[in-house]
Fold these 2 entries.
Entry 1:
Amino acid sequence: MDVKDGKTVKGVNFVNFRDAGDPVELGQEYSRQGADELVYLDITASYEGRKTFTELVRKVAAQVNIPFTVGGGIDELCDVERLLNAGADKVSVNSAALRNPQLIEAIAANFGSQVCVVAIDARFEDGTWRCYRSGGHVPTERELFSWAKEAQERGAGEILFTSMTHDGVKDGYANDALAVLHDTLSIPVIASGGAGSKEHFRDAFLLGKADAALAASVFHFGEIPIPELKNYLTKEGICVRI
C-alpha cells in the first residue's frame, strides 16, 4: 500500500495517483481475505524529507494480525527502532540505502537481517535497469543487479524490486529481470509492478522465479479477490498459504 498524506493511493509509472482508501481499513480487509503480508510505503517521505507516520503504524499494528513492512523516510537507526516499537515487523529502505549503503549493515547488525528489506525502484532505459531514489524522482548511477548483490552482501534479508517501467500498467511483471535477480541472489526476491491478471502472478513465480509477488491496484479496486487468486495459483502448481 502506497501511502500519501495518510491515504492509500495508486498511480501509473509512479505518477498520476488516485485515492484507494483508508490504509488501516484496507489492511484489515486484506488480512481477512488471506493476504500473507502487507507493505506500507510512505511514498513521499524521502522526497519531501519527512518521517513515516508512526501513528499510522501503531493503528495498523492494533488492527491487523499479519506481518507488515513499513518504508519511507527511514535514514537512521532511531527511525527503525521507532517503527519496530510501534508494531512493524520489518522496515524497507531505499533512498537512504542508496545514499548510505552502510545503513543496511547497521540495521542488520542491530535488529537482524530479517528486519531489513531493501527496496529497489528501477526503470529499464538505454538497455539497462537504472535505480531511482526519492520515490522514483531521482535517477542514480546504480544498476539493479549489482546494487541488489551489494545489498545482500551488506546484510539485507529481502529485496523488493519494483519495475517503474511496469508499475500500474497491468501488463505483467518484469519476469526476465526477476529471473536474473533470483539467479544472482540467495535471499528472497519480492516482485512488484505490473500485476493485472491472475496469470501475471503465475508467471512471476514460474518465469520470474520470484519468492513473493506484491500488488496494489488489482486488490485496491476489487479486480482480483485474494482467495480466488490463491486458489488459482494452487491449481497451477504453485505453493501458497491457504
Note: The chain has one domain: 2-235.
Entry 2:
Amino acid sequence: MQIPEDLRYSSDHEWARSVGDVVRIGITDYAQDALGDVVFVELPKLEMVVVSGGTLGEVESTKSVSEIYAPVSGRVSAINEALSNAPELVNSDPYGEGWICEISVDAKSDFDALLDASGYQDLTNN
C-alpha cells in the first residue's frame, strides 16, 4: 500500500495535496483497494461550498458505494472530468490521474490538522 510522504490524510481515507490556497483531493490507495474495481464516481459540482467532514460525492465499485468526504472546508474550484469516462483511474492511479477535485480553502488550519503519512500508516494498521 502506497502512502506518499508529501500528502496529508483524513481518517475517512481521503488524501490532500496543498498548493497555495488550493487543496487537491482524492481517495487513498488503501480506500481504493478496499472498494475493489471502481465503476462510477459522482463528482461534486463546481463552485459547491463544502465543510470539512461533509459529503462531496460517491465512489461506486463492484463491491459497494462509498461516500467521499471533504477533508477541508472551502469551495470546489476544479473537478476531474476524466473520471466520468474512466472511473478506473481511481484504482490505477489514486494519487495522480485518479484525483477527485480541488478545493479553494477557507483556512489553511483544516489542511494542517490532517494526518501526516506516519499518522495515516498507524490508522490503517489498526
Note: The chain has five helices and nine strands.
